[in-house]
């Protein structure tokens, strides 16, 4: 287990989790803001994207009351990404997350998850800042992140290809 905050646990992804990811990432409600409804995942695609990639993300499953409910990943920004976002020498981490079990939406668990992850990154990874780049139209997520102490920094125009269209995103940050 990576960390626990009360009934919330975050643990590293295991091989068995591919079935959960395929379930969540084939749900149109989840895909509306994460990957796109035109981009559903089956187990083969989950294997390719989450297990075969060489990227430096730490990929995790989120549990609440011992039920697997979602996914979160974090990664340290490399120099190229720092430059793109306008940062320099600091230690900066990014995160991406979703609650895959929709019956757990609107219960404060996203706020608990993001707050707990920020605390983990600041305390254990010495993060100076934590950044995310949600789509500007994802108002529910933005409200959650702002409750967690994130501030909107600037618009990233046409930053993410989503459902066949390049979408504007917000660069948001939590500054330690």
Automatic annotation (TrEMBL):
This is 2-aminoglycoside phosphotransferase. PANTHER family: LYSINE N-ACYLTRANSFERASE C17G9.06C-RELATED (PTHR31438). One of its GO terms (biological process) is response to antibiotic. One of its GO terms (molecular function) is N-acyltransferase activity. Keywords: Antibiotic resistance, Transferase. It comes from the Bacteria. Gene3D superfamilies: 3.40.630.30. Pfam families: Acetyltransf_8. InterPro entries: Acyl_CoA_acyltransferase (IPR016181), GNAT_dom (IPR000182). Residues 8-173 form the N-acetyltransferase domain.
